[in-house]
Description:
Layout: H1 19-34, E1 48-60, E2 65-76, E3 84-86, E4 91-97, E5 107-109, E6 114-116, E7 128-138, E8 153-154, E9 159-162, E10 179-188, E11 192-194, H2 200-203, E12 206-208, E13 212-223, E14 228-231, E15 237-239, E16 242-248, H3 257-275, E17 283-288, E18 295-298, E19 301-305, H4 306-311, H5 315-323, E20 331-333, H6 339-358, H7 360-376, H8 393-414, H9 416-430, E21 433-435, H10 437-448, H11 453-460, E22 468-476, E23 483-491, E24 497-506, E25 511-518, E26 521-528, E27 532-537, H12 548-564, H13 568-581, H14 586-598, H15 602-614, H16 621-636, H17 640-652, H18 660-669
Parallel strand pairs: 1-10, 16-17, 17-19, 20-21
Antiparallel strand pairs: 1-2, 2-7, 3-6, 4-7, 5-6, 8-9, 9-14, 10-13, 11-14, 12-13, 15-16, 18-19, 22-23, 23-26, 24-25, 24-27
Amino acid sequence: MKRRLYHHVLRNLACMVSLSRFFRAALAALFPLSLAVSAWAAPVRPQLDITGYVIHADLDPATHHLSATAAVTFTALEDLTAPSFELNNGLKITKVTDATNTPLDSERLATDSTVHFNLATPIPKGTSTTYTFVYAGTLEGSDTSPVSGIKLASVDDPISILLYPGAWFPMDGLFTDRFTAEMHITVPGDERVVGSGSSAKAAAPQSLPGNRAQYDFNWTKPGFPGTIIAGQFLDPATFTGLGNMRVFVTAKHKDAATDFARTAERVFLDMSGTFGAPDSGNINLVELPDDAVSATWAPEIVAIGGARIAARNAQRLISNTIAHLWWGNDISPATMNDAWITNGMSRYAELMYLEDTAGKAAFQAAIYDVSAGALAYDTEPLTTLGRLDPFSPQFQSMTLEKGAMVFHMLRWEMGDDVFLKFLRGLLSQYTDKPVRTSDLEKVAEAQSNLQLLPFFSQWLDGTGAPAFTNKYTVFRLGDNKGFRTIGSISQDLDLFRMPVELRIETDGKTEIRRVDVVGTNSPYSVETFGRPRTISIDPENWVLKSTPDLAVRVAVLRGQEQVAQGDLTDALIEYQKALDANKNSSLASYRIGEVFFMQRNYQSAANSFRDALRGDLDPKWTEVWSHVELGRIFDVTGQRDRAVNEYRLAIQTNDNTQGAINEARALMQKPYKPTSNDN
């Protein structure tokens, strides 16, 4: 079975708007995040360890054809009688030989994109050997992709992509099995090629007969260098500030190259200051075709979709992708059960950069959204997720969002300085190595001098999050000495233990206390000079917890996933759950309107968008986009004057989230007409 695509939606919760844009955004959100983990459910015990490749590949964009030879060196981890490798279904094997150049019989299984061998003589455990594959085929679109619906390997004009997860060469243990790679790539003479570990020949390729050119790459440290991007790129631009950064874009996006580079430079310098210099400081910024993944990474490669580059709205996407140079490239998960480390930390690194550049409020808003994602499918411990399909909603939600929240809560436990010391210590000890959860736990305790077993037990080995309630009484102290608040924090999880911030707003200054919540009832007593006006628990969302507001977001997330899978009925059920939790939820009403619009039930869609406008307007973008969608409905039903009025109202909000105002202005000039892409 092909790897099932998970349309991960939380990343764009604040900007996924019309339904057609929703699908594109969902795809855009997936790969910069989830390419840090294995793309299929690997065996519990791997049978072999691939250590190196020598690949010769010829690309013909005019015919979408790839022909290649790949020498794969691997070590048997057990007495091996039936080795198997994954290979893109668009590629046909013509010959496989062993280390003695003896031909081997193989069986091709299109159902899971694999090649199987049945050996008459087993390869003894611990033995290293080399198989040489000769293969060719057509790579175009996503029909042959190991992940349904996503183009990961395509030979095309003006850009060809051969991404590591696209299985364009025989592989095993995606993003858990580190390897070296020597790659020789031949392309038309007017194209340039980007890969990991470029030699001098990569900058000045070898000219070949027939107006062809060969680019050579050599990555000599175990890692994940198996990505090649080739295209009709302009001469690579370089920029002052980072002499080791090159930018590869097509003529179409020439004007955006500088902004792309400057954003990447800021992110890279910020993260280098946080985590230390990455294993390699070379960065190739590369344009991806718009019909492929929105972003991907490889050693020395940060690749972003051309439309995102041109729109100059890819800061968080770029920051997440660059974060993988540390969390995914420098260190990688030892097994699928450890994928939360690199997935979660790449997400949290993105949020840390947001905090540095956009401020505390933006950071806390993002943490709130990540909390919703963490709770959406929290029924399986992080440390046993290897048993799941890694592209399932649950796996993605847990490793990305709950993984990020684990690091967020570790920061709260440790304090900022110790937390950064811990991250640097983890990177220092495991650079160029796989890391296990047990390794992380040891480093965390050593760097913090804290006993963190209870923390890791409840957040990694357990499920669920507490729901807090606060009961208190305020007493006036004699002689004008102020007030004493005596209360207790109750929770519904008996075994949960975590320090929680208590904030008391008074007539004077704000008082902050740290309450160690243990068991079902944790008392506290606080004296203040001013009368307490409001008392809040964990107002800055340092702790993953269940709240009524998050229940709305969780139901909406689940509904969006159902939409992404084409199940509109179940989506409406989830959205109704959100409305049941908060009848004034603009977000839930908006999402319901999207579904009705997709079904061409325009009256019901209009009613839902009006409900969104009458609701709590949380998030704020629901206002501007509800006006835009109402305008579209009026255009479809032949009421142009009413449509134009809605577009004007959208513009008057001054909210250009995801280009809403730009869209409204365009629709004022040209009426909306539905297309097949809107369904």
